[in-house]
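Input set for joint prediction.
Command: fold jointly, output tokens.
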Amino acid sequence: MIVIAGVAAVVGIVVTLWAAVIARRRVPESPSGAATSTASTSTAAAGRKIKARLYYVSMDGTKLTGVDREVSYADGAAAQAQQIVSAQLSPVTAPFVSPIPPSTTLRALYLDPKGVAFVDLSKEASTGHTGGSQDELLTVYSIVNALTANLPAITAVQVLVDGKQVDTLAGHIDLRRPLQKNLAIIEPEASAPR
Amino acid sequence: MRAVLRRTALSLSVFALAFFNSNILLSQQTPLTVLSKDGNNVTRRTLQTTTVNEQEYVALDDLASMFQLAVREDALGALSVSSKGKTLLLTPDQPLASIAGRVVSLPAPPVRQGRRWLVPVDFIGRALSLVSDTRITLRRPSHLVIVGDLRVPRVQVRYDTSGATTGRLTLDATPRANSAISQEGDQLVVRFDADAIDVSYSNTTAAPLAAAGAQGLLQAVRVPDLVTLSFTTGPRFGGFRITTQPSDTSMRETIDITNAGGQQTTEATPQLPPVTPPPPDLNTAASSLRTIVIDPGHGGEDEGAKGAQGTKEKDVTLAVARRVKTALEAKLGIRVLLTRDDDRAVAIDERTALANNNKADLFISLHANASWRPTLSGATISTARFSPQDEEMAHAVASELLPAINGAARGIDFIPWDVAQIQYVTRSEALARTIAEHLQGKVPLTMNPVDSQPMRVLEPANMPAVLIELGYLTNAEQEKQLAGSDFQTTFVQAVVDAVVKFHDESGR
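tokens >
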């Protein structure tokens, strides 16, 4: 009887260890049926560029100014979306001011079948924010507009932080649902800095 | 018709769930209620129980079909129960189950009844949860099995008489869950923000609310759906007043019920459902403006925006909110509640819940702004903005008919908690414009001082609601202004005048 119990215990331990190994080998999950693109699986074709409109803080600080920039070309909407968001997150030089908190990076980007892009930003998007609702609007809509303006396949954007759905970035703008393009926040062309 | 039948069946069975909690001798056939989530829907199934030797059992084959288990019996009579590669073993004579070398005790051994095997109810919580990949929790006293991560707060209902003619209803939700309380026809309805509720009655054994019934204030309680408690009001029900007291672990709603002095309660006006007319004012005042909630933004670890000299948004908003409260109370003699009165973090939903649960007439959230452009200055007043999808969602929730006092039925539009503000957008915009007009010329305003944005804190507000950004802490001059007494006094006076004007104009 003791022998049987001992064997059972050993088998139990082996099974547990094996299960742990299997669990470690599993690829991180993404929403089922969704196109996925992460920083490590970029499919950007070397050297080839496209022109994309990115958004920076207007001179008076209340709007977004659209600026055409060269962005690496990538195959497929999800991979191209990743390139566009990465470019939008990159620091810029004067006279432009970026609406993105410094050091914010793109963790992952998913595209669901309805054209909603899920943009997963690093925690700096929230922890490094100035905390103003005005700046929060510009941060959120620079990303929403950069995707919806450049990629017609993307109809709405939901911003995630550190892999999770969040209430807000800095306490004001609701991020629990996907947001659509906001044209009202874009400054008319003539007054944009060149 | 089908919907009506479903509702009735649900109300009866959930009522049973609530009823059996109340320390009454358990029936031998009390089934278990199994709650699980299928996408966003909570499904409710029942699991029959059988009593053998004063021990409650469930049939193993019922569990097998509900939880997709494979049950095998070997030649020696040992039972194996498998799910997704995990197997647990049961031996007929032993009150034990073993899984992967781990042994768990059961209150009694499995027993055979005809061709079926029965296992003690505790098998679900102690053993089944170990082979399942979803969390399974057994709440034995409530006969409740919760599959997965559902929010099912325990709601303890207590009724105390306070004096001969009035009473106090106390609802404790643990863990904390917000609720919306409203009067709908002859029903006092409490809807919880949860997947389901687990109701028990603390001081009534024979009949819940017997004392309230004797006073003619409340006659019955039912649980019409998984998240709602509904009290039928009695002939002497005059009105109610709600106090919300959150603690670390639970949320307490105290509902003081007043006596109508034997008069028939008047029927609710159906124009603006689900908001029913406020209870008769027993104090004084012809004024219908009773309660205003002021929300000082941020707090605790969440400091909000910060100025170069170190001025913190959370301090400015609290100082101004306290001044607004004092001024409104002095000028209008009404109740003004703050969502926080010290330096602590308050969840966004709790802020709006305080306004909803206290049936506030106005909700004003105070903030200070920040910009990457240090030249930007001025105040803005924002209202909530909803997308066409939000509006579709709000209206897709079907209207339901509830019985009214005269025996007829009236329609109630159930607006989801998340987007309750949808029905107040126009009035909120009017309030925002009135505030901007009163601030004009007294404090700096931005170029377009009134706007609408998807403001998280305003969306669930069930009353006109605005968010005021006092000015920019990132602007050196404004940082000094906002922290100073002159600005604050002027701002507060303008807001109080605006509230009075708005109130007069809207004719409430």
